[in-house]
Structure formats: C-alpha cells, structure tokens
Amino acid sequence: MTQRRNPRYARLGAFTPSLFLPLSMSLAALSMASPAEAQTAGYDSGFFIQSEDKLYKLKIEARMQARYTFASIDEGLSRSEESAFSIPRARLKLSGHAFTKDLTYAFQSDFGRGFVSLKDVYIDYRLVKDALHLRVGQWKRPFSRQQITSSGNLEFVDRALTDRAFRAGRDIGIAIQNNYEKSPPFEWALGLFNGTGETPTFTGAVAVDPATGEGSVSRGSFTNVPTVFHPTWVARVGFNRGPVKGYSEADLEGGPLRLSVGASGLVDLDADDDDVSAIRSEIDFMLKTRGFSLSGAGYAATTQDGSSFGDQTFAAVGAHAQAGYVIGEHAQPALRYAVVRDATASTTTHEPLAAFNVYFYNHKLKWQTDGGPIITQRPGSNTVDARVRTQLQLAF
C-alpha cells in the first residue's frame, strides 16, 4: 500500500534545507577561524574582552587559596600549639595590551590576610621582538627563580625558607629585559629599583605635648616610596634547553628532558650615606623529564659593616633542593630540604619537608598538603618546631 505524503510536510521538508543553509555556512566559517580571530570576548587562561582590531585587550584572572595550618612550637621546657584557617592569597589580576600588542600592562591586588595590598602594576613595551623590552612600575625583582615563580605554580604549599631569608620580592623600578619570565633560550634582565620592597611603612611627623609628654602623629602616611632614594641594582641571566616552563614547578606538561639554569645578583647601594647596604647573589636550576621535576638554588649575602659601601662582611648563606614526581597526571609526592645559616644571629635553620599534591586541573585547581620539622640551631641550644599545612587553590 502506497502512503500518501501530506503536502504541508512536503513543503516544510523542501524549506528546511534553505533555512539551515546560511546557519551551517556561518558555523563552518567560524570553525575555520581561530578562536582569537572569531571572538572579541571569551576565556583563554582568563576571561578577556578585546576590540575587533585586537589592538586593545583586557584579561581578568583570579586566584584563591584556603589554608589550614597546625604548628607545634618548641619553647624549651614546654611546647605550645597553634592552629588556624587562613586565606593567604585572594588575588585579582588585570592585564592586556593597549594601542598595540607591543605595549602590555598588568595590575594585581591581593585581598587575603584581612587587608588589601598592591602587588603588581607595570607597563611593558616591546622595543625589539624577542630581544628587548622596557618595563616600568612595581613587580617582582628578577632575583631568585622560586620568587619569580608565581605562588600559584608551586609544588609545595609555599616557598622555601630561603626566600624570606634572602629578601626576594617586589619593588618599584625600571628594567630592560627580554621577556625572561617566558623562559626564552637565553634570558636576561637588568633593573634599578627603590630598594624598599612592596611592604608600606609609616612615614610622618610626631608632635609631643610638653605637658604630658605624649606623642601624636601630626601628619604622615603609609607608603613604600622612600623619602631618600636608596637605589638597588638587580641583574639576572639564564639558559633554557627545550620548551621548558622554567617558572612553573612540577612537570605537569610531561615530555623529554628540559632544563633551566640561572643566576641573579642584587646590589643594595649606600647611595644615601646611611651606612646600610648589602650584596646578595644566587644560582638556581630546574630540571623536568617525563613527570619528574628537580629544582634548587644556592644563596649568599653580605651586609655593610662600616662607613663605606666597600665595608662588606659575610651575613648569610643558604640553599634548598626539591624533587617531585607526577603520577597519572594528577597525584604528586614531593620532598624538599632547605637550610639557612645566619651569621648575624649565629643561627642555622633546617627545613626538611614532605608534600603530597592532587592536581584536579593542573595548577588551576589543586589540593596540597605538606609538613615537617623546622630545626633551629643556636649557640648552646636547639629547638625543633613542627608544622603541617593543607591548602586548596582555585585559579581561573
């Protein structure tokens, strides 16, 4: 028996291809174009919006860390315990380019630890492609691989004790460099900074009541800009073999042997004749191969002990080394040992540490736990503290 077709549905069937033909052609054109060419807004390691000619771009990134810390403090004849939840970092970063892709910018603030602080604000202009950039503003001085590495890309909950001991960190200044943070085959940077770091201090005048002897601040403010210029020179060079991410710990990328080696120097001059100056130097490396990562650094520092910059005396020496292995792209056990010898305080501090990390989405979403003793040796006495930290990080 022959089934008769309804003329209404026949006309609809003939019309349907003509309805979807323009749509299918548009989708085909979009699929042939790259995401950057097809979109003026979207997500690419951060949410972004850009002009159609791509000469203006704004990228928005965020990172949050929720941490629990337990510490057992050695007080000689007794011990005390401390534990607390904290938000060590809650970062918001804006970056992109303006007028031209050669002129980039970055702004980053932190809302963790109960107050707001400025972390990065700088302008970077590419003078010569792959060879020369000029950067002005506040950012991490190019000193120490572990400090340059983002706190979001570490394979332990936080950096080794050598980082704070040798005072790596951010500062306001100007530098020429070759985009060293992207690990080109040969990297270099040379910068001049204020030398005061990123932490604001209070500067102001105090008025004293002659009747009561009590003081009060008549004017002043918190600032990290020095009243007297205290210049600090910082230089860094490095070599990178293979497509290595030299400023991201853990071999989450996998692949054959990749290697980064570098050296940094910092000279804190006594240009203001306050008899305060220092010289710090370090060498560092990072090796990655097929899920295994090995990195470390050695540090040395001097301090001024006289009326001229040349009166330098030994202040401290330190080192750290760490290794980890990524199992099945998601789990990673790791070990670290760090030591600092402080000659000015006559102490030696040891930090052996073990960690276990779970990478749900690389460094973007991970759970980290580390713990171990902190051994401090002083003349005539030793103390052994213990600390365990566990932290969840979300970044997008």
Structural class category: mainly beta
What are the secondary-structure elements, in order, as H or E? Answer: HHEEEEEEEHHEEEEEEEEEEEEE
**Strand order in space, largest sheet:** 3-4-5-6-7-8-9-12-13-14-15-16-17-18-19-20
Shape: globular
Q: Please, what is the average pLDDT? A: 89
What proportion of the residues form beta strands (DSSP E)? over 45%
Q: Indicate the low-confidence ranges by residue numbers.
A: 1-33
Total of helices = 4
3D structure, described in words:
By secondary structure, the chain is mainly β. Helix content is 10%, strand content 57%. It is built from 4 helices and 20 strands. It has helices at residues 7-32, 35-38, 145-148, 161-165; strands spanning 41-43, 47-50, 57-74, 79-98, 100-110, 117-128, 132-140, 170-177, 186-193, 201-208, 215-223, 232-241, 258-268, 278-289, 292-304, 312-325, 331-342, 347-361, 365-378, 381-395. The strands form 2 sheets. The chain has a 16-stranded antiparallel β-barrel with strand order 3-4-5-6-7-8-9-12-13-14-15-16-17-18-19-20. The radius of gyration is 27 Å and the shape is globular.
